Amino acid sequence: MSAPDCGGYGGGAGFALIVVLFILLIIIGTAYVY
Length: 34
Hints:
This protein is mostly helical. The protein is built from one helix and two strands, in the order ββα. A two-stranded antiparallel ribbon has the order 1-2. The protein starts with a strand and ends with a helix.
C-alpha cells in the first residue's frame, strides 16, 4: 500500500478500490447475518 503505483493505477484509484471492496465485504457480512 505504500507504493504510489499499484497495478497500473494511481494511489488514489488503488485506495478507492480497497474502500469499495471493504464496503462490499461489510454489505455481504451484514446480509449473511440477516
